Amino acid sequence: MNILGQSITKNGALLGLFAIVTTGVIAGTYLSTRDLIQDNIRHAEESALLELFPKSSHDNSMLDDAINASDSELLGLRETKKLYRATMDGEFVGAILPATARDGYTGDIDMIVGIREDGTISGVRVLSHRETPGLGDQVDYKKSHWVDGFLDKSLSNPEEAKWAVKKDKGVFDQFTGATITPRAVTKAVHKALQYYAANKAEIIGSATKNISEQQTSTDLGTQR
């Protein structure tokens, strides 16, 4: 019994030591790769933004020039997300708005909508969805370039009644065998334009304010 007890104690100590070492290794691995993971995430986010506003169109870091958006009525958001701004030489160029189409065929369709200063669309990208493979998933840019149909469109081009898929007497194509998904995305993009028009002054104002603050900070640093 004594031998058994000693054996159990010894094994317990070994297991405890093993757990401590394993935890240390995991923690060390996490700490050593955390910055790399964050850099990869940031790079992926920046790549998505640059598809809507290429580097040639702005000179600021859009990831570092953002405000929170939580609108559920026009943007359809279920949680607070980032709205990014693009500027060139201190002048506002456009914004990238988060939007959610809540009426997709199989659930929410999350996207970003690039809108130039003049209210025209610079691009649309679907970030996540659960639409049917081979049908509704054509909203994904990797599957098809259907969303390019929104390029250069605005609230006045086409007129409001035509902001719909062709089946609903609008100007935008639907997919063969799938109408619900393109209908939901078209509606969400149109609403994003409405949100931009209603909040343009605030979006531009906060962007130029941010630039002014950065310039002031730089001037102060120079004076020192």
TrEMBL record:
Enzyme class: translocase
EC number(s) on file: 7.-.-.-
Modified residue annotations for FMN phosphoryl threonine: T179
Main location: membrane
Location of this chain's protein in the cell: Cell inner membrane
All residue ranges annotated as the FMN-binding domain in the record: 104-196
Keywords: Cell inner membrane, Cell membrane, Electron transport, Flavoprotein, FMN, Membrane, Phosphoprotein, Translocase, Transmembrane, Transmembrane helix, Transport
Pfam families the record matches: FMN_bind
Membrane topology (UniProt): Single-pass membrane protein
Membrane-crossing residue ranges in chain numbering: 12-31
InterPro entries in the record: FMN-bd, Ion_transpt_RnfG/RsxG
Xref: SMART domains: FMN_bind (SM00900)
Cofactor or coenzyme needed: FMN
Binding partners and assembly: The complex is composed of six subunits: RnfA, RnfB, RnfC, RnfD, RnfE and RnfG.
Function text: Part of a membrane-bound complex that couples electron transfer with translocation of ions across the membrane.
PANTHER family: ION-TRANSLOCATING OXIDOREDUCTASE COMPLEX SUBUNIT G (PTHR36118:SF1)
Family as reported in the entry's similarity comment: Belongs to the RnfG family.
UniProt protein name: Ion-translocating oxidoreductase complex subunit G
